[in-house]
Amino acid sequence: GFSFxxxxxxxxxxxxxxxxxxxxxxxxxxxxxxxGQKPFNDIAYQGFDKNFQINLQVLDWKGKFPSLxxxxxxxxxxxxxxxxxxxxxxxxxxxxQDLAHxxxxxxxxxxxxxxxANHHIGADGISVIFAQWVCDVYKAMERRKxxxxxxxxxxxxxxxxxxxxxxxxxxxxxxxxxxxGRASKVEPVxxxxxxxxxxxxxxxxxxx
Length: 208
Fold this sequence. Notes:
- This protein is α+β, with helices and mostly antiparallel strands and 208 residues long.
- 34% of the residues lie in helices and 22% in strands.
- The protein has five helices and eight strands.
- The chain has helices at residues 12-25, 74-88, 129-145, 158-170, 173-183; strands at residues 2-6, 31-35, 44-48, 56-60, 100-108, 111-118, 191-194, 203-206.
- The strands form three sheets. The protein has a four-stranded mixed sheet, covered by helices on one side.
- β5 and β6 (111-118) form a beta hairpin.
- It is globular.
């Protein structure tokens, strides 16, 4: 994920609306872990929620760094990042849990700190450029709120482009030859028995 300072008064509802607007465009922000239809295979999939609603958690930390905020130096930055560790590093073992989490920390009246924390499987699709995008959308929404008729910006789907680029790279003949050569040195396993939750069923998975 990423984080950045916002050094101005902020319309929190409008900021949340800007995040929601981006999430509706970019499905990687709406990712969840879903259990497969055959639970005994113990397989989870990455799914995307069509009806996703941004859950922006607003935290009041105005009194958390009373002696450091005014100095706003490296010590303050280090303490702030340290305090955010519990927000960023989390256990993602629960199925149906959102893979991206959004925090807006109030440090002072005109000083906020925004944190977006996401699971590593979505990291390739959530670029730091989102930081610029959410600011641009927020500013456009502010102008529209004041009477402007401008359209909100539309951005490319970064994750789709990443997948396309990665396939072009990994599907080259020289890449395939390399990995086939590496795999040829591994002793093959013909069958891998899987123990289902239902003992009456015996399943074998063919390894090719």
